[in-house]
Design brief:
By secondary structure, this protein is an alpha/beta fold. 26% of the residues lie in helices and 25% in strands. The protein folds into 2 domains: 196 residues, FAD/NAD(P)-binding domain, CATH 3.50.50; 161 residues, 3-Layer(bba) Sandwich (FAD/NAD(P)-binding domain). Bound molecules: flavin-adenine dinucleotide.
Amino acid sequence: MSVHFQVLIIGGGTAGIMVAAQLKRKQANISIGIIEPSKDHWYQPAWTLVGAGTFDYAKTRRDESSLIPPGVEWIQDKATEISPDQNSVATAGSGIYTYDYLVVCPGLVMDIEALPGLKEAMETDIVCSNYTDPDKTWRVLQSFKGGNAVFTQPVTPIKCGGAPQKIMYLADDYFRKNNVRDKTNVIFATPGTVLFGTKEFADTLHKVIERKQAILKLFYAPVKIDAQKRIIYYQYKKDQPWQAEQATGETMGDDGLVAMPYDMLHLAPPQAAPAFIQSSPLCAKEGANKGWIEVDHYTLQHRVYGNVYALGDVAALPTAKTGAAIRKQAPVVVDQLLAAINHHPGTKQYDGYSSCPLVTGYGKMLLAEFKYGNVRDSDPLLSKFMDTTKEHYRMWLLKKYGLPWLYWNKMMKGKM
Ligand SMILES: Cc1cc2nc3c(=O)[nH]c(=O)nc-3n(C[C@H](O)[C@H](O)[C@H](O)COP(=O)(O)OP(=O)(O)OC[C@H]3O[C@@H](n4cnc5c(N)ncnc54)[C@H](O)[C@@H]3O)c2cc1C
């Protein structure tokens, strides 16, 4: 086993494998090591469908060993400390590795403790999250008999910002099919000031909410959960007086918090960069990006350490954290690495592209594609055949069959 690599990658998830595979394809003689502790690799985008009982959880997992590109060394260990001044990374079990270039992409972690009461609530059988256990979401939906079905998300950045509302749309559909919907308030409560960042897609989503008669609560920032009483408490963040919604039974307490009773609760837990990133010299120490890795938005190069790049969920980029974003980030990092190794200027830039396949029911989806500034960035070829701001059955097929196939057979092989 080598201890020095030209390119050392931390994290063998979506980003790490894509970068390694593309780099090896472009220049086979580069020595690459991937530090990745897990023997499992997950295709997380399908977890939304797993939670709605329309995708097999087992099929979202593959052996990590089957994805490590030929010629790349897999260090099955956990990175514990990054020392960018020494160009080295310490691991939990196998010592220290050094590098010429470092690519940091260990994703993010669920920060369950950041929302008081969440841990206890997650232990009950009416609280679930596609982010942690999508099979449980499916069990919760099946056993739900009516009342308040609350879907919510935290104030922290999260991966796939659309996922908390996708499962709400699917749940509504499921409740209708099973005659539970007429006894149910479907509530989507978000700290966000808008339902979706890009107006063209938000317009369609508002119509979906209206059609489904779901209750939309903007400016609702979750602050704690009382698992015993089955209440989630929100800080109402809008600069206007709060108005009670009769149907939901929510009330404003003396503490100024809105108490929302729930009969089932789905949430995206608060999320954060892994602890070893937060304690490293690479992360932002202050400001809105505190704890995340600040890189140049266009080259993905670290702002202080020029031989370090970060991409994927751990990077502080003003766009949505998705696998789709990584598909556009990875070629930029690869281009930058090849340019640096071969002493020529880089040619590619990342424009903030991300996309969100917004499933709005069984058999319905709209594909939101956008870039920095929440500017719509729909694929021109696809747009020739359909209006991607609208729901389509063909898009659902893309989500359920097309994208998983592309992920395993093309993206993970460095072919796109
Ligand atoms: C419910 C849900 C729905 C989603 N839907 C979509 C969607 O529809 N479309 C879409 O594009 N994206 C979607 N995503 C988001 C997408 O899956 C992530 O953005 C993407 O996987 C992030 O890739 P990453 O490589 O940054 O992190 P990950 O793929 O999470 O990989 C990080 C890797 O780093 C490893 N690691 C962690 N700590 C260490 C350490 N200390 N040392 C070494 N390795 C470490 C981990 O084991 C892991 O393998 C969804 C995610 C979820 C949870």
